[in-house]
Design goal:
The chain has a single domain, classed as Cupin (Jelly Rolls, Sandwich), CATH 2.60.120. Helices cover about 30% and strands about 25% of the residues. The chain has 7 helices and 14 strands. Helix 1 links the parallel strand 2 and strand 3.
Length: about 300
């Protein structure tokens, strides 16, 4: 797995940023620094702030130790906690498998949308709703791409977060599960014997710090590790590509419900079938690449 691809880093306050033409339309990832400057969120938002203002809210929490969640893109919360209690855990900056994701805190506190509204460069049909994500030290987010195929603008607060990004063209080499948007490969310690196609994958590796904003284009795979207890807010924007929009609709309207249904009917048998199919697809591509390499060698 090659993570040497370089991602652009631009300063929103100092550089002339033609985001739409250089990144949105070309579907190219970029890290934008300084996007939160001069917003109330820049200095106001912190773990302490959320504990003091929203600590009693009961929220859904997900446990990475629950391996059953790997069977489908459809996941349900493993437990409910008072927001304050969860924030106490990640504030200790010790390893935890508990995380909060796709949380609409804005509905509990509308002031949050005034503190950090959707940036102007990302205005669109979905700009009214932000989602928040929280994790503690060494908390990971399994490799996936967003099922609705939207573009994502992710702004980070607090400690550091590591992100691996892979373009949609590598989906089969990443062992995408059929009817799903996930891979079962371990991206902390890749097993190239079990997942040999990973050797052919190229991607980006970046570290997000407080105030950094990452643009993730539609369909981009991402694997995330919280290096420190911290949180992010995301805004979404429909892809400028019709094919991506249609795929997002199909994922939500057809493939997700079908996958959920088949999981209920066949359980582990369905998961094992998907695993076999994902390995077969990856192997087919490996064979084609090896054949192409052999033909080039012979021609030389």
């Amino acid at each position: 797995m090659d993570l040497s691809q370089k991602i652009d880093v631009v300063d929103y306050q100092r550089n002339s940023l033609d985001f739409e033409n250089n990144y949105l339309r070309t579907q190219t990832p970029v890290i934008i620094k300084g996007l939160i400057q001069e917003t109330p969120a820049e200095k106001k938002w912190s773990i302490s702030y959320f504990k003091n203002t929203m600590g009693d809210i009961l929220l859904d929490v997900y446990d990475n130790k629950n391996k059953n969640a790997a069977a489908s893109a459809y996941t349900t919360a493993d437990l409910k906690m008072k927001f304050r209690d969860y924030l106490d855990i990640i504030e200790k900056n010790e390893h935890t498998d508990l995380r909060i994701f796709l949380c609409n805190l804005f509905k509990y506190n509308p002031e949050l949308s005034k503190d950090f509204p959707c940036p102007k460069i990302f205005k669109g049909f979905l700009d009214h709703k932000g989602f928040m994500f929280f994790g503690g030290k060494e908390t990971t987010v399994r490799i996936h791409y967003d099922i609705d195929m939207s573009n994502v603008l992710l702004t980070h607060f607090g400690g550091k977060k590591r992100v691996l990004l892979f373009a949609p063209e590598y989906s089969k080499l990443l062992y995408r599960l059929p009817f799903n948007t996930y891979s079962l490969a371990n991206f902390d310690n890749p097993d190239y014997d079990k997942f040999p196609a990973l050797k052919y994958v190229k991607g980006y590796e970046c570290i997000l710090e407080h105030g950094d904003t990452l643009f993730m284009p539609s369909g981009y795979w991402h694997y995330i590790t919280y290096l420190e207890g911290s949180f992010s807010v995301s805004y979404r924007k429909l892809s400028p590509i019709l094919k991506d929009k249609m795929e997002g609709i199909m994922n939500l309207a057809m493939f997700l419900p079908l996958d959920k249904c088949l999981n209920k009917l066949w359980g582990n048998k369905w998961l094992e079938h998907k695993k076999k199919l994902s390995h077969k697809r990856a192997l087919d591509i490996i064979k084609k690449k090896e054949m192409l390499h052999l033909e080039k060698t012979v021609s030389v």
